[in-house]
Amino acid sequence: MTAPQRLTDRKREAIVQAAIAEFRASGFDITSMDKIAATAGVSKRTVYNHFPSKEELFAEILQRLWTNVTAQQDNCYRTDLPLREQLGQLLHCKLQLLGDNNFLDLARVAIAATIHSPERVQDMVARIGEREEGLTTWIRAAQVDGRLKPVDPGFAAQQLQGMIKAFAFWPQISLNQPPLSPEMQTTVIESALDMFLTCYQR
């Protein structure tokens, strides 16, 4: 890669990070491309060269959120491992993601924009939601293997996700609480595993 290309990549990243900061501070509608350019330290023309519209810039941010979520997905069911061990690993990865400040920043932007203008980001947020529920596939595989009771996999996955997010997502998003400590992460995971497996394990 040439030096100019690297400079272009750096400028694009600066624009995205500036947009995240401005969307968080002012919301989607009030944030202007002029303000994003000023915060990024680039010209307005440079911003438009990378992103023809504010909607496309916001779509880039949502795409990153989706990519971050899907990159964490490793939900392959294993017949040779205990359910608790497998689920514990999945939940640990989930909490690592939910404790990432960049992920939380992107999630705040997406949620705020969805509240104010659902139609703007409906499709992208739906894609994020679908991929985030990869746990459903794991639960279905465990049912086929005869190790979990025949409950609706999507329902059970949402229950488990909800137990985690009640401590490690919504308080951080809505109340700006800090990410969970490693000790609290362990407590949340173990408690969620106890409740889930007590209810659904054969």
UniProtKB/TrEMBL annotation:
Keywords: DNA-binding, Transcription, Transcription regulation. GO terms for molecular function: DNA-binding transcription factor activity; transcription cis-regulatory region binding. Residues 32-51 bind DNA. Residues 9-69 form the HTH tetR-type domain. This is TetR family transcriptional regulator.
